[in-house]
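INTERNAL TRANSFER SHEET
From: sequence group
To: structure group
Subject: Saccharopine dehydrogenase [NAD(+), L-lysine-forming]

Please process the attached sequence and return the structure record in the designated field. Keep the field labels unchanged so the import script can parse them.
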Amino acid sequence: MRHETRRNERRAALAPADARGLIERGVRLTVEESSQRVFPVHEYAAAGCVIAPQGSWASLCPSEEYVLGLKELPGEPARLGHRHIYFGHAYKGQAGAPSLLRRFEAGGGVLLDLEYLVDAEGHRLAAFGHWAGYAGAALAVLHRRGLLTAPLASLSRRELDGRLRPSPASESLTAVVIGAHGRSGRGACDALGTAGVEVSRWNSADTRALDRDALLAHDILVNAIGTDRPVAPFVTKDDLDDPRRRLSVIGDVTCDVGSNLNALPVYDRCTDWDRPVERLGPRHRPLDVIAIDNLPSLLPTEASRAFSADLWPLLLALREGSPVWENCLRTFRRAVGSMDGE
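Return from structure group:
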């Protein structure tokens, strides 16, 4: 398991307790030291893991081994060997996707993208969705109340909930969650409930016959959909000038910006921990967007433990061959093949 190179990424794909579970079942697990991971490295050592220097996977890890992570790989090496397990974000036309796939092709490596680790019905088997939705909705509420400060920092759920709970002076707010019945959507609704915000729960049926006036009448929109095909936009640039618009904050948990799956084509780049909000619309009636693509790291302990509990039994199936991992491999090969055919 490699160190995450993104500065504010404190999550881990495996928690120490689940690392112990793998080792007790005969898996050899090496964990890189990390200056920022939420779990200290000594807990992995106590679980029986081999400890390696931070960033050493490229030079010390044998080519046939799996390299486990969460977010993007560093820019080097230019040729990627190994079998990498992480969220690659390389199959939906995202910026940088072709160059990443060419690095794998050049080095003979493989990407087993965790986003495509799904069951026969297409449901993700290991995901951060709940905590992504929770954090995204929480930030939207805090910003709407004027309580969001930057740069952001990781919190415990207790700390975040303490900030979310309404005070007697809190304005009464309404929110619409699109994709409310999925993991992210349920997490968003939980956070909004903690904040005392009235929630409209919308699903795909509501967006197929979108009541734009009803959507714009809410204070907050949380986008938590998961889709593999383009959908009609929920908010357009024309809506920014609509005099009936009450909507003032969008929390985009999905963050498909830059691809043709983006349901919110009113902004063109993700925000980040240093600048979490992008302001759009007329100065007197702005619309603010929060679109951070590693939201669960705001709650790294809770998010990591929940994800790890889903993932570690699936990792055991790697050595036996498994339809869900074979699906990841086929998806990677299709992506590389279609790139070569361009």
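Handover comment: The chain has twelve helices and eleven strands. The mean pLDDT is 95.
Transfer complete.
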